[in-house]
């Protein structure tokens, strides 16, 4: 969507409902899902990639639509993976003249129409489900409950509201999961980092699970988060920007309307900014305890920690949510588990290749095996005890039956349009 009044209206809505203060009420969702992740890794560690994807997707469906995704086999989750896994209109963006070709010749346009139908079916269905839940009095606190109000105030159609919420679902699910897969690979390739992080966690947290309150006392863990986002940026080309006026760069004229890619990968791997860039080294940030939002707002780009959340007007508005999710996952995973290379039938270690990445808009390591084992029996016992407390709040379908303390319910008395 180009910069203009509709874009500003959508950004305002998203900011009002995804700002740092508003999203603090969703911390109980993040707490529950990170504990569910630990239990899943205890039970079936070899499916760690599936567990990481379920973790981030369930977090996002709760914060956006108010329901959990308790299983990787959830039909809606599979539908989202299908939509997200298809190629985009990159060819048309690079060569706009191709847009004049008929559908019979341009397969990308036919594919785009099919993709639109599938994504519309998913997103509109999820949006209308929330409106029905509000009418029935069963809706849980989430972004869409607040979006219902904005729909009336801004005269937004159901389709646009569905795509606003659906875009947040897409942006918040796969990207964070990809970073956690990258982090897991880094812990295998750089075991000294995992050891140093565990020493910090043991010193600060002891035998209890890390919490968000530990953040100021875990600078090395904070460094692990920043380094993960630098070492393996999910959107390696960076979010595309469009010029609103003619510009010039290094003698090149860039016309108004042209697309510009920040190239996060090149910035993150510039040895002048980051010496030995392919080495995973959290100590790069040991003296930088700025949050993602604080760093993103730094007017001096040379002092940015990384560009994993984008820059400028297109910067990720949910970066503080993602940062909290990464902190809880990374700190608790390292507190609970050891990460080692898997072994083949001959007993030889299988070392993952950090250059073997998926292709497409979102990049991450291709699936690799790993050995993930609990650090000791005491941690296993505590994890299961903590999950038992969480399960007591869920119904038989593993959805919230009792809202935990901290979640804010905002009363919605009207639904603007019939669902």
From TrEMBL:
The keyword Heme applies. Coiled coil: none annotated. Gene3D superfamilies: Cytochrome P450 (1.10.630.10). Keywords: Heme, Iron, Metal-binding, Monooxygenase, Oxidoreductase. GO terms for molecular function: heme binding; iron ion binding; monooxygenase activity; oxidoreductase activity, acting on paired donors, with incorporation or reduction of molecular oxygen. Heme binds at residue 316. Belongs to the cytochrome P450 family. PANTHER family: CYTOCHROME P450 MONOOXYGENASE ALNH-RELATED, P450, PUTATIVE (EUROFUNG)-RELATED-RELATED. It comes from Cochliobolus sativus. This is Cytochrome P450. InterPro entries: Cyt_P450, Cyt_P450_E_grp-I, Cyt_P450_sf, Cytochrome_P450_fung. Residues 352-373 are annotated as: Disordered. SUPFAM superfamilies: Cytochrome P450 (SSF48264). The lineage of its organism: Eukaryota, Fungi, Dikarya, Ascomycota, Pezizomycotina. It holds the Pfam family p450.
């Amino acid at each position: 969507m180009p910069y203009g009044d509709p874009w500003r209206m959508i950004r305002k809505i998203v900011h009002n409902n995804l700002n740092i203060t508003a999203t603090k009420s969703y911390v109980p969702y993040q707490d529950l899902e990170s504990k569910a992740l630990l239990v899943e890794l205890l039970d079936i560690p070899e499916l760690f990639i599936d567990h990481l994807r379920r973790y981030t997707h369930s977090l996002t469906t709760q914060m956006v639509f108010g329901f959990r995704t308790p299983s990787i086999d959830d039909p809606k989750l599979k539908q989202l993976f299908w939509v997200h896994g298809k190629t985009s209109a990159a060819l048309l963006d690079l060569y706009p003249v191709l847009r004049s070709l008929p559908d019979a010749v341009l397969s990308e346009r036919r594919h785009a129409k099919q993709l639109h139908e599938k994504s519309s079916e998913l997103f509109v269905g999820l949006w209308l489900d929330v409106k029905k839940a509000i009418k029935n009095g069963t809706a849980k606190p989430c972004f869409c409950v607040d979006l219902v109000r904005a729909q009336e105030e801004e005269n937004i159609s159901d389709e646009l509201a569905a795509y606003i919420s659906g875009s947040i679902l897409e942006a918040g699910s796969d990207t964070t999961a990809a970073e956690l897969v990258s982090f897991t690979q880094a812990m295998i390739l750089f075991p000294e980092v995992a050891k140093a992080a565990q020493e910090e966690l043991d010193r600060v947290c002891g035998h209890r699970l890390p919490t968000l309150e530990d953040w100021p006392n875990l600078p090395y863990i904070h460094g692990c988060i920043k380094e993960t986002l630098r070492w393996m940026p999910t959107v390696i080309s960076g979010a595309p920007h469009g010029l609103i006026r003619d510009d010039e760069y290094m003698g090149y004229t860039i016309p108004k309307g042209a697309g510009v890619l920040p190239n996060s990968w090149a910035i993150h791997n510039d040895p002048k900014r980051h010496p030995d860039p392919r080495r995973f080294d959290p100590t790069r940030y040991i003296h930088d305890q700025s949050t993602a939002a604080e760093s993103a707002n730094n007017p001096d780009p040379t002092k940015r920690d990384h560009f994993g959340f984008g820059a400028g007007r297109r910067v990720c508005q949910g970066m503080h949510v993602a940062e909290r999710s990464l902190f809880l996952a990374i700190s608790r995973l390292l507190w609970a588990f050891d990460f080692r290379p898997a072994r083949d039938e001959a007993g030889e270690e299988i070392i993952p290749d950090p250059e073997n990445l998926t292709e497409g808009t979102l990049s991450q390591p291709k699936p690799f095996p790993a050995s993930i084992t609990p650090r000791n029996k005491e941690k296993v016992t505590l994890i299961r005890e903590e999950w038992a407390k969480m399960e007591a709040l869920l119904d038989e379908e593993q959805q919230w039956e009792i809202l935990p303390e901290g979640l804010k319910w905002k009363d919605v008395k009207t639904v603007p349009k019939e669902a």
